[in-house]
Amino acid sequence: MVKLIAVYRRPDDVEAFERHYREVHAPLARSMPGLQRLEVNRVYGIPGGGDSDVYLIAEMLFSSREALEAALASPEGRAAGKDLISFARGIVSLYLAEVEA
């Protein structure tokens, strides 16, 4: 199993970000072929109290590296990538990870 992990820093306009993420970006991401699960985590703080500069972490689970690469290369994956750049440039970092049981 592998994951594509997107870590979003706090956007300037949280309401606009949430609306776009919920109504546009998440549906595009969910349409990617081979996606087994999309998990969205909203960060509310850090241990010991205080605010985090991380706002949201999205994890997309795929069966293999090949499945992930195929999803990213698909029309749905390219559309999700283009959308990501349009609304989250400068606040998102992407990571690829292997899942250990």
TrEMBL record:
The protein's name: Ethyl tert-butyl ether degradation protein EthD
Residues annotated as domain EthD: 13-88
Alphabetical list of InterPro entries matching this protein: Dimeric_a/b-barrel (IPR011008), EthD_dom (IPR009799)
Domain of life: Bacteria
GO MF assignments: oxidoreductase activity
A Pfam match: EthD
Organism: Hydrogenibacillus schlegelii (Bacillus schlegelii)
